[in-house]
Amino acid sequence: MSSNHEDIKREQIAETVDGWTHNGPFHRRPSFRILILVILFTAFGVWAAVFFTDKIMPSILSSQMKSVHDTIIFFTILAAPVAALVYAIAAYSIYKWGHGHGEQAPPDGPPMRENSLTTSIWLGASTILVVVVLVWGMTALSSENQGQLRPVTIDVYGQQWLWTFKYPGTGVESNQLVVPVGRQIRFVVTSYDVTHGFWPNSLGVQIDANPGFKTYITADPNATGQFAVRCSQLCGLYHAYMDANGKVVTPTQFSSWLVSHGASTTSANAYALGGK
Amino acid sequence: MSTTALLEDTKLGPKAGGLYRHQNFLTGILTGGVAMFLGWLVAHYTVQNNANWGSDMVVTVTMAAWVVGFMAGIGAFNAVFRWMVGHDQDHDDELYAAGVSQGWRRYFKFCTDHKVVGTQYLVLVMSLFAVGGTLAMIIRTQLISPNNHLISPQTYNAVISIHGMIMIIATIIMVSGPWANFILPIQLGAKDMAFPRLNALSLWLVVAAVPPILISLFIGGVDSGWTTYAPLSVQSPPGQDAFAITIITFVVSVTVAGINTITTTMTMRAKGMTMGRLPIFVWGSLVAAGLGLYAMPAFLAAQSMLLTDRVVGTSFFAPAQGGAGWLYENIFWIMGHPEVYVILIPGVAAAMDVASTFSRKPLFGYKIAVGAFFGLGALALMVWAHHMFTTGWAPNLADPWMLTTELISIPTGVFFLVIIGTLWRGSIWTRLPMYWVYLFLWNFIIGGVTGIYLSDVPADQYFHGNMFVTAHFHYTLLGGGMIGATAALCYWFPKMSGKMLNERIGKLAFWVIAIFFQVTYFGMFWEGFQGMPRRIAAYAPYFHSANLIATIGAYGLFLGWVILLYAIIHSWMNGKVAPSNPWQAKSLEWHISSPPPLENFLVDPIVTSDPYTFGEGEPMAPAKQPSPATVGSTEGGAH
Ligand code: HEM
Ligand SMILES: [Cu+2]
Ligand SMILES: [Cu+2]
To answer: Do A156 and A267 reside in the same domain of the chain?
Structure first.
């Protein structure tokens, strides 16, 4: 390469940097216009996340489900500006530097092969985002695992294509999942045949039911209401129909529900309200 | 003087090629059919006398016999056999095998010319997409209303499983098949791939692998999804045996192809084509091939073990006899996660090259892009259990899996940096290939961001096994990988076919695809948020509107692809003749005629720079041609 060539290159790069700062009126600068696009895109993304969690997802019946909602919104707030920046630059570049679709290629752009500042900022920002996201997830996970509430154990059995819930000590066995609010529910999950996925959706937890051994998951219901229990693991012919009804009730209601399903009053009370 | 004519007119001896002269696709099918029948006969009568072995044995033997018979019938073993008995192929035989003076017939033969193989792959991939797409339409039609009875639950399960697997097969080879075979050797300045016969072998193995999986639909199907989780898959109908034979055959194909791509890149580069000057597409293909070599054998292992569990009563995955479903899930995802990057990376790499050419700027951050490919490849080996967050397996490892998975966002983010850095202040030439790059950006961001929700264990406890996951991976695989592959298709179509792709129809297809894609998967995200599980044949009325949106979107999306297919076929037959360098691009394939002659270069090219010299005052870099006769016509190239 000739030195003349080097000069041209340097000029072009200088011009590139200029393109960003550009000494025109403020509102005509690329940086300003891109910023506007970023803000618009970000606002839309965050609005969508709030809309989906608030209006579309089943209601929050446990602290785990609350954390699902919060995570969606928080991650969107983190990710939307990055996505927005990419969209904004893509959109802006075609608006500003588009050369149509003629037969001949447009003149070459500046030979800008890299820019270590941009790259470092980009890598640094994505690393920070990863750390934030990771710490968020680890915190939520560890708080899930150490419930403050007194536990109630429920045994969950999956089989093709039906759920059975047993309330140990009461002799009650039902196809309906009823859990008391304000207690930590400890699900002990297994299967009689193939793998199923135990998913009480408004409780915001999920664990597979495996034949031959048990898996565990805890949920902390914090509001009363109805929810659906679904199978989340393809388990053969009638997988689609492997639903059950679930509800979160007060401990007293829970106790009387147990009694109405054949438990003795003492065992129901001991199980539903006990351990005081 | 056309260089094509030179070799095409070569007079071969009347016996050149030997048995090859009589073998083609049809003899392959016939031999395969006969072998299948014999296999069935033998297995059937053995099984009759052995109570332990049932129909699974019959199906397995029959399907395996088909694969071997087909490959023998098309001539895959000729050369090996001749070498074994001491009659090696002579030069005329090799030329015959490369398709010399056979015209269109070579496209139906075990042809060793990399450009023929590439073209065959393209047609194969498009056919697979057609089949998979039709199955998708059946799925979406079934889901048009909550309790539809279009197909039975059993058929439904079979259809979703086969749809998934055919699409995965097609996407794994959608770039590495057509473009890493057709374009990559030319970009290196090579005359062919390092192992031309293995190249033909890899192609025809995929062809052989297809019938069993289609037949599986008619012998009970597969009822456990493309993931075929055990123990359900241990008890599945015999369709599962045919499915396993397909996978085993396909894995051999991908492995052979991967070795070929890597060896070609390492050893066949022209003078001056240093690793630092490779087009980014070559790097992407290289990393994906390496990753495939790591990943795919695990699939072979998983399916072979499953097959022996079913056929001869081993119990790797049968819990009642001490096996474990978790073992299957682990082996599967040790394949499964790297595999998604095998699909993605070549498409991204092609999109980067397209971005550079149509921005008339060097690729921004070449080195960091290469680094990102390797980083992604390395991380891909360490994240498989994020597909198992909710299985209950190794809960203490949730944090480390979350870490590795979230780290993936860093190399993924680099892809975006490289592309927008390339667009920045470029001269954006809005021809059809560039459209797809924009769509890639749009979709792949959505795929990536939704991946981050899934990588968070607490959030995944809501989204796992739910339509949200389905929407996520369609945004990444179809919206990212396949749209990148479509950019590649529109970019290299003139080189491959010698015709220009009709851009008016192409752009119409683009808009239909771009819009209906969003509609379809927006519907699926909606379903996911509402809490609809994946893979269900019927659903609560509550999910109806979201499903309706997805189904309408899917019809539009299908239509879009049909329009694109029409543009391709129409242009291939009646398109405008393509000049050698319609995009005024700089990598080596644009220095030779469209389509390129047999053996590509008459005189080996010498490379003096990378293909990204836009704006650097070297109009036709990188190749300094030793003589004008080096390469095919260069008219239309200089500017
Ligand atoms: C930032 C990048 C990404 C992250 C963090 C991510 C994360 C995840 C996670 C955690 C899952 C499991 C979800 C579940 O089953 O509960 C998943 C599923 C999946 N992802 Fe991604 N992903 C990313 C990008 C990609 C890409 C690029 C592809 C393909 C090109 C891809 C393809 C898939 C597929 C096919 C599945 C579902 C497989 C199945 O269950 O059938 N993902 N992803
Ligand atoms: Cu199920
Ligand atoms: Cu994965």
So the answer is: yes
Number of domains in chain A: 2
| Distance in angstroms (rounded) separating the CA atoms of residues B316 and B297 | 17
Residue A162 has pLDDT above 50, yes or no: yes
Domain of residue A28 covers: 2-109
For the entire predicted model, the pTM comes to 0.93
DSSP codes of every residue in A209-228: E-BTS-EEEEE-B-S-EEEE
All domains in chain B, ordered by first residue: 21-95+105-110 (no CATH), 111-588 (1.20.210.10)
Could you say which DSSP state residue A52 is in? I
- Confidence check on the interface: ipTM exceeds 0.95, yes or no: no
> Among the three residues A109, A140, A162, which one is the final residue of a domain in this structure?
A109
CATH of residue A250: 2.60.40.420
- The tokens for B519 are 């509609």
Average pLDDT, stretch B133-142?
A: 97
User: Which residue(s) pair with B607 in the sheet?
Assistant: B623
Q: What is the mean pLDDT of residues B239-252?
A: 97
Nearest CA to ligand 1 atom 36: B473
Looking at the complex, report in whole angstroms how far the Cα of residue B223 sits from the nearest Cα belonging to chain A. 6
Q: Between chains, do B445 and A83 touch, taking CB under 8 Å as contact?
A: yes
Q: How confident is the model at residue A190 (pLDDT cuts 50, 70, 90)?
A: very high
Please tell me the distance from the alpha carbon of residue B161 to that of residue B242, in angstroms, as a whole number.
13
Q: Quote the distance between the C-alpha of residue B407 and its chain's center.
A: 26
Of the residues B383, B390, B434, B609, the best mutation for testing chain A's interface (the one with the most A CB atoms within 10 Å of its CB) is B390
DSSP state of B575: P
The pLDDT, as a whole number, for residue B10 is 64
Residue A119 has pLDDT above 50, yes or no: yes
